[in-house]
Write the structure tokens for this entry.
Amino acid sequence: QVQLVESGGGLVQAGESLRLSCAASGSIFFGNVMGWYRQAPGKEREMVARITQFGTTNYADSVKGRFTISRINAKKTVNLQMNSLKPEDTAVYYCYVRSNDDYWGQGTQVTVSS
């Protein structure tokens, strides 16, 4: 069983930055993917950024050039650096791991005021 603990959400103004962190505990299998999803009120959960164990990344078009995902395999952590935040980035952000199964964190609120 994998457990994920997120940190780093909060309230910022448009144009500012936030850094989200997620630490995983338990066994994560070879070939895993870690990432971040988000869900805004009244909207479906969407992928923000993902990174494979080997460092391959992909991003939602809406965050390309502004967000950067990174991970430290030895520490089983994944981070999301979010720059130039916009009000439309406001959502609950969820850490995600695909290993032998899909695992989700409890979510952290990010609110961007205009």
Q: What stands out?
A: The chain has a mean pLDDT of 96. The radius of gyration is 13 Å. The CA atoms of residues 2 and 27 lie 6 Å apart. The chain is about 0% helix and 55% strand.
